[in-house]
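re: ur msg from earlier - yeah i can do the 4-O-methyl-beta-D-glucopyranuronic acid complex, just paste it... oh wait u already did. ok heres what im feeding in:
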Amino acid sequence: MNIKHRPHMMHRFLTVAFIVSLVPVAAGAEDGLAAWLRYARLDAAAAQRAAQGLPMSVVTFEDSAPVQKARDELVKGIRGMLGRDLATVSALPREGGIIAGTVARLRQAVPGLSLAATVPADGYFLKTATIGGARCLVIAGESDRAVLYGAFAVLRRIALGHALTPLDERQEPAAPVRWVNEWNNIDGSIERGYGGRSIFWDGGRIRDDLSRVNDYGRLLASLGINGISINNVNANPLVLSSAFVPQVARVADVLRPWGVRLALAVDFGSPQSLGKLPTYDPLDPSVIAWWKARADDLYLAIPDFGGFVLKADSEGRVGPSAYGRSHADAANVVARALAPHGGVIFYRGFVYDHHMDWNNPKNDRARAAYDNFHPLDGQFDANAIVQIKHGPIDFQVREPASPLFGALGKTNQAIELQITQEYMGQGRHTVFLVPMWKAALDFDLHVGGAAPSPVKALVSGKTFHRPTGGFVGVSNVGLNPNWYGNHLSQANLYGFGRLAWNPDLTSQQIVDEWTRLTFGNDPLVVQTVTRIQLDSWPTYENYTGPLGLQTLTDIVGNHYGVAVEASERNGWGQWHRADDKAVGMDRSVASGTGFVGQYSAAVSKVYESVESCPDDLLLFMHHVPYTHRLHSGKTVIQYIYDSHYAGADAVERYVGDWNALRGRVDDQRFAEVAEQLTYQAGQAVVWRDAVSRWFHRASGIADARGRVDHYPDRLEAESATLAGYAVTKVTPWETASGDGAVECSAASCTATFQYTGASGPRDIVVQYFDVNTGAARFRLRVGDRVIGEWTGTDRVPTRRLDGSSSSRRTFRDVSLQKGDTIVIEGTPDAAETAALDYIETLPAGRRQR
Ligand code: GCW
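and the outut:
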């Protein structure tokens, strides 16, 4: 055994080994910045369990930044969780140590160590071993960054209370590509970003302070994410200018120690718009040379540059069609510029015509990706990857897996999953997306012959033995301390990273890990948070667009609030085709658009017929009468009503369940999540009423349970005694109760309601509008008694009275007498008109109706 012992290091090691910090870790402000890497102190029993047999020093033999980060992270994490200070040494102490390094280096430095012969790319071993009589914990990575992955895995085990000894684990990622895309504009705004402004860009350049980029790199590394593009796929050509190279190189320098490669999204017209060439034709020699020169330039400054992401011929972006060239031509001209440097191009499969004629029943946006890319299979270079959204439309609440995954046997592919919650509540609603992603990843497209071919195997390159492929998440973190504007939304980034590493993990496993790491191991907290998270996607689906209707948000506006018809009669092709008799898109081969025929025979057989199509996708695949009976026996229309009530009730329950965690979660995060869930509960009622009323009016079929359009506890503002307030229409109509709302155009106005119900304690709900153009004030009085005052300062994404701005405030346990007057005083501010929709008086404690 050839192990050097260094006596002076030993001394230090022994000293620290016996110092167990007695200073309790202060609870500290928990603003969410540390996400799942809080390293909060474990309770004494768990800490003792984890500490048992854990060596008290970290041994590293390499200077590379990721290995040093691994070492520092181990020191920090073990100090935080166990209150123990590890020594950092470069030779193995007699008592053993946590040995962290690359497999190649460890084989040299620790000959007594036996490691399996092969290590897959980015893979690592965790192994307890006795070396020279000393107990060691070995973290051996295939690459520098894999050492870091191994260190984070050890820390995760400790935080979760898993035993560390004995340990013999070999981990490898499912696919080489585990990337995030950030749709950040260079001015610092973020397309579809809901967590504040960019951590990368500000005012047309890279930020001076990149500390948040460093923090983000750490989060990404902890999940094994190894690449990032930092600008919007609707790319500004300027990012390729020489002037930007040194700036972008600074970001690469910050991320490199975390093993994350930097990439840029590029505009296909850049050779012309930026390079001043007469053309951007991908086959033109000057264009070929231009791409090559830009790539060479970037690689000089950033030798490990990852590559480019390209959105072409999509949503107004220029592309190869301008010259009659194919997407493969476009991808390859860029791919060939990157290839000598080892870079890749992600060519987005999100190509469709957004000026489609909606009158033609055969037109179908869902067909577009397959129709565009399937004929080109085999024509893309080896370092080109077609990046495909998980469903055929666009991040809707329920879509089938894109058929394109099954149609590219000779092309590299990656799945694009959206972490940022466009169409999914935008961080204002808690919606845990992992179960939705799992549904796509686990879906068997039956293209692999006898063997199963789930999407996860196709995108990882396993089914067709591709050289590369994998997972891309559109992340869009921002400067908000909690990254996404909602603490619970962090679980989506965590889940994306964990699935990109191992798509076989279950949603339950992922959310259990995330919750423990993020909020600790208190059983009630774990049980409550995991239940809310796991339930949240079906719940969101219930109160938005169930049965495959798609989300039903305002698709020509902010993609947030409800607007049932926004998808119709325009070229964007997100049609649900609801009319007075029937609803849904007929995508069958027999009578519809033929989309179903893009799947293998085994899959299309299921989707083709109304009888075998699963209920949750029925209206995505078929146009059926409202009276059609689902497999459950319920009619489509009654299901629409019931699911909306079930969804809104569920969020109301989340609020109560979360509130029971007071004192078990740190104060700041407790309060912020409570506020978010309360807001969501109010919005779920807006959605519930809007969608159910819209379908009631369209179908003319009453709710069998008598709820829709029957709100006995409600008093409409339009029917109140108004002083200064005037009645106004709201668009879309379904987003206001009754016939509209009232707005104040005077300095201040009042709406007075007569309470004619029984005397007793009541909850008073005020439904008002909170737009983003001012901060109107409101006061609620009962007679002369002031019950509450508030200001409409929420930054919801709308200037108008609509489903996004409709807001709800509840005042609990107000004592009311029959005949009382309830008064709302509204004071407008700037362009905000203190608009009111209705008030509602509910028996105290009863669910909102
Ligand atoms: O869903 C749409 C978004 C666009 C986005 C586009 C895309 C970046 O509304 O904001 O553009 O998808 O994925 O390219």
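cool cool. Residues 183, 191-192, 232-234, 311, 315, 350, 394-395, 422 surround 4-O-methyl-beta-D-glucopyranuronic acid (CB under 6 Å). ping me if u need the other ligands too
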